[in-house]
Amino acid sequence: MYKGDEFMWWQYLIIFLVLILISLVVVKLNKKNFTFEINKLVQYLGGKDNILDSEVNMSRLKVTLKDITLADKEAIQKLGAKGIVEIDNQLKIIFGPNAKTLKKYISEMK
Question: Which of 35-39, 59-63, 98-102 has the highest mean pLDDT?
């Protein structure tokens, strides 16, 4: 092997390690943002004491509330909800694949 080949191998190794480090940082930041978004969602639903029950059906999060007037549907929409349907004291919120994870975190908060 030539000295130039050895040097290139180390360069590739360093680039690979830097990419792994960047990937880990991005994943960590996204996890923090997701937790922050869940806290905001609970706040926009009127707080954890206003949430009586939550269920998940595919991509929809169904939340039963004590007082539906405390829910800020416009703010929930800004969090990324693709749609919101209000029926009596329930909100059916379409969140896509994150709905199941959101329900899990909401249940853990209660």
Answer: 59-63
